[in-house]
Amino acid sequence: GDSVTQMEGPVTLSEEAFLTINCTYTATGYPSLFWYVQYPGEGLQLLLKATKADDKGSNKGFEATYRKETTSFHLEKGSVQVSDSAVYFCALSIGSGGSNYKLTFGKGTLLTVNP
Amino acid sequence: NAGVTQTPKFQVLKTGQSMTLQCAQDMNHNSMYWYRQDPGMGLRLIYYSASEGTTDKGEVPNGYNVSRLNKREFSLRLESAAPSQTSVYFCASRLSLASPLHFGNGTRLTVT
Fold first, then answer.
1. How far apart are the CA of A114 and the nearest CA of chain B, in angstroms?
2. Helix (H) or strand (E) holding A36
3. B97 touches chain A (CB under 8 A)
4. Residue A20 and residue A107 in contact, taking contact as beta carbons nearer than 8 Å
5. How confident is the model at residue B22 (pLDDT cuts 50, 70, 90)?
6. Does A5 score more than 60 pLDDT?
7. Which pLDDT score, from 0 to 100, does residue A98 have?
8. How far apart are CA B62 and CA B41, in angstroms?
9. CA–CA dist A66, B25 (Å, integer)
């Protein structure tokens, strides 16, 4: 079945450090890929997405590139801020009907950024 | 612009009690979802509704029932709560298969 594997946390960084959170996937078709972020006490919010190979999603200084050859969608940010402290989830979705209405999520990576 | 609204925000139940978690979205989305979030387990899909009038089981449906009351509303019912159902429950919706999910802020449920 479809699955998402992301690096286990927690990840602790100092402000202005470089961030990478690894995400790899297994899918039978051609998925759309997403990164969601969850701030304390809130629901998940979409951070960025990519719908086909070589697409780069970006938002708020975060980027991720859809790499079909390595089945990866790693999240990066050049300079993190304290306000980026949150849990980050990688997810995939495969189009067309039936059970493909489901999204598959990774287990989440807790990021803490210290001043 | 409310998005996805879940009620209640917090609930404490005793084992064996029943309750219904409510979810409503005002974005005219077709599909709706119920997830539970547990430490170290990430998000697990309980039930989903691909469109009004249909519901299907997700990964962990046992102990739950759902109703897609209309296009806006999708409720989750626990008929006889168990401590294993202590969790944070999230409702989500999306317009189409290529669209991202929009989440509510969650219901924190404790079963004693």
1. 23
2. strand A32-38
3. yes
4. no
5. very high
6. yes
7. 47
8. 17
9. 30
